[in-house]
Amino acid sequence: MRAQPGTEPRVAVIVPCYNEEVAIGKVVSDLRTAMPTADVYVYDNASTDNTAQVASAAGAIVRREDRRGKGNVVRRAFADVDADIYAMIDGDDTYDAGALPQMVEVLRSKCLDHVLGVRTASLGSSAYRPGHESGNRMFNRLVGGLFGEPVSDMLSGYRVMSRRFVKSFPALSREFETETELTVHCMSLRVPQAEVSVGFKDRPPGSESKLRTYHDGLRILRLVVSLVQHERPLQFYSLIAAFFALVGLGLAIPVFVGFATTGLVRTPTAVLSSSLMIVAMLSLVVALVLNSVMRSRQEAARLAYLQYPPPPPL
Fold first, then answer.
1. 308 to 2, 67, 168, 193: CA distances (angstroms)
2. Cα dist. 164→84, 129, 151, 241, 278 in Å?
3. Paired sense of beta strands 159-162 and 11-17, if any
4. Is 212:131 a contact under the CB 8 Å cutoff?
5. What distances in angstroms separate CA 221 from CA 192, 217, 300, one per listed residue?
6. Per-residue pLDDT tens digits for 113-136
7. CB atoms within 10 A of CB 52
8. 125: domain CATH number?
9. Of 231, 255, 284, which residue constitutes the final position of a domain?
10. What is the pTM (predicted TM-score) of this model?
11. Residues of the domain holding 73
12. 229 CB contacts (<8 Å, ≥6 apart)?
């Protein structure tokens, strides 16, 4: 049910957690202070410590997802929780929970579907490790260039979203690459969105990061390649077709030159060149077919998105 005119919208804050006993109590407390009317859902992702108990004592609604991985938590939460506006924030107390009212206000005042919290590290903070910061910049440029939309912090875990955005999001990823999937979903549907700077600080003492720089980076890179293949099939398979066509043409030129000068044909090279040109043509046909499928799928996704009302205005 949509919020009635003159009433406050229902805001649900989703906090994915795995072994965040040290930090989760303060995160829930800060969220409840910043926006007392919001429902705070802590999704315990099969923690082995007292995360669930601490979150419950702090006033959160605690639910459990036993499939390990942030993407699994997001898929479950987006399916189960019903609200007008959704926020998502990590449970490690590195993001400024106090920025939530501003992000919700931006979403409502501009009738947006997605507000991204762009991390701004506090002075002297080491929360943004050099490897993570440079990797994030690289992915921002890569994804922005491939999908035609600029983004400043695509790996941020702090977002505010409308109901129609959340309920039209497929949520297929399993782990930390879910942020990449959310960003590309914004770009593919071309939903109205904005960015807001939010504070970013070190984890509290005793809290341990779950990120694995190279492992998670490779997973994100594989997802980006998969999403390009899925969302930009014409460009993806056309590049493959162009590669095989150029190699085939390069092999064919000596065959034609040799035949013109000696009257002889190097049969193996000619067969290989012809085969490569056939592969190039098949790749081009695949590109055209999948591009038509992609357009139909995008139209269906757009219609599913339009089934839900826009975010409640201020």
1. 9, 29, 9, 17
2. 9, 34, 21, 38, 44
3. unpaired
4. no
5. 26, 6, 27
6. 999 999 987 655 555 555 567 778
7. 19
8. 3.90.550.10
9. 231
10. 0.85
11. 11-231
12. 236
